[in-house]
Give the backbone structure.
Amino acid sequence: MSSRTRVLIAGAGVAAFEATLALRDAAGERVDIELVAPETKFWYRPLAVAEPFGLGEVLTFDLPQLAAEAGAQFTPGEVVALDSVGHVARTAAGAELAYDVLLIATGASPRPAVAGALTFRGPADTELMRTLLRELDGGDVRRVAVAIPLDAVWALPAYELALLIAAYATGRRIEEAQVTLVTPEEEPLELFGSAASAAAKELLDERGIALRTHVYATEASDGELRLVPEGLIAVDRVVALRLFRGRTRYITRCLFGRAGEFLALPGGSRACGGGRRAHIL
């Protein structure tokens, strides 16, 4: 019997790999690490905004190979239930994975934030964005709004999208194109401080992008984008950033139960833990 501590990590995103590397560095050969996730590819997303415009490419990496290089084993599957007393995780396919320590780093699932809008999630929506650009070329679309939802954590992609759409229209000599950026922030890119806000405001103005601050979009329909607390914008298309919803909830309740009893991990609410979505049992 191995004397190594068996560490099971549910998830195979950035947080999961950071944990894997940190564990391997700190514990060396004293741990066996197993990653379990439903996907077999790791998506490197920073260039997702640029890809539809032909300015970059989203890279993918083979998860089993990445895990092996990080000193871990990869198992395809989705953890859906735990026997926290018996230290066994069950996957959706019925496989049972034993562990001594479990780290849940399953990430968060994107959800639409603005009804009637094109929700930009990243690589999955490259073709939808290209369709929007073709509509601009064909004259079917002239008024585009880019919306940052209320409670969005990372707003920068919206600014990148607005600037890229405006640059595309200018490069194609689509003089009637109008781009509007809608944000609940009091100042653009306020997370980065006053100097960045001033620079962003100047750049948006130079590119002819209208800015609506201290409001957020709720619904696009019949050629109008509804804003809260008040206001309407005439639009042909709306591109909105996604919001995130944790894939697990109330994970701590899985600490309590009888040996051999599996407790389900329902989705649809905030997950417990640190990072974006992580919890150690």
